[in-house]
């Protein structure tokens, strides 16, 4: 029960923060396009504004999640295509688990009849879950989701600014400055994504070593 509560809180936290960034972005666009929008918002009752300030970002975050996910996959796909042009850079854009020895250990622990059908990461993660071992999985996952969504939002705004507000000098500078920021946030998100795998394999190795020691002490 406690574990499910922690997962729900991490999910809500990630969706809420992502939703707030989207809401702030939408508000800025609307305020620039329709200056009277602030007057309409001020007419709403404070209780309604307070309730909306919590519920709306949460719902928006949930709705924006698949968009951020798809744009994140697109960036990974582009990073994969650019691998031959810049292998070192692509290593950060499209991350892999850094310690191959831990991956091999997890792979070797899978029963031979299942080795072809089971991913070592999923095996290690599910094994830790069965043993009720707490890992920072959700902490890393929520940060990964947040930074990925911010990267996706910056990319969307880089496209929307010239479309909605014209092609003036300020708009061009702002739009172009958001592109490297978007890449920066995508790269940041992938670091947390890589940490998810690294942490899972490390905890799995620790658990296997502990069980091995316990078996030796019983003999």
TrEMBL record:
Which chain regions cross the lipid bilayer? 12-34, 46-64, 146-167
Keywords linked to the UniProt accession: Membrane, Transmembrane, Transmembrane helix
Instruction: State the name under which the record lists this protein.
Output: Glycosyl-4,4'-diaponeurosporenoate acyltransferase
What organism does the UniProt record list as the source? Thalassobacterium maritimum
Q: What is the lineage of its organism?
A: Bacteria, Pseudomonadati, Verrucomicrobiota, Opitutia, Puniceicoccales
């Amino acid at each position: 029960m406690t574990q499910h509560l922690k997962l729900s809180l991490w999910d809500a936290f990630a969706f809420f923060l992502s939703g707030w960034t989207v809401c702030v972005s939408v508000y800025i666009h609307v305020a620039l396009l329709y200056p009277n929008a602030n007057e309409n918002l001020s007419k709403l009752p404070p209780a309604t504004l307070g309730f909306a300030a919590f519920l709306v970002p949460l719902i928006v975050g949930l709705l924006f999640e698949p968009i951020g996910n798809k744009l994140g996959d697109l960036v990974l796909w582009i990073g994969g295509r650019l691998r031959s042009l810049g292998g070192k850079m692509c290593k950060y854009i499209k991350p892999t688990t850094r310690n191959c020895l831990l991956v091999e250990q997890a792979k070797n622990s899978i029963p031979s009849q299942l080795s072809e059908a089971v991913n070592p990461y999923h095996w290690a993660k599910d094994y830790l879950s069965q043993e009720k071992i707490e890992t920072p999985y959700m902490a890393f996952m929520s940060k990964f989701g947040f930074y990925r969504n911010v990267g996706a939002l910056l990319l969307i705004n880089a496209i929307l600014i010239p479309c909605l507000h014209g092609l003036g000098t300020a708009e061009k500078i702002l739009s172009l400055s958001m592109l490297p920021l978007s890449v920066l946030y995508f790269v940041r998100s992938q670091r947390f994504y890589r940490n998810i795998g690294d942490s899972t394999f490390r905890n799995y190795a620790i658990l296997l070593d502990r069980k091995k020691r316990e078996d030796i002490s019983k003999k």
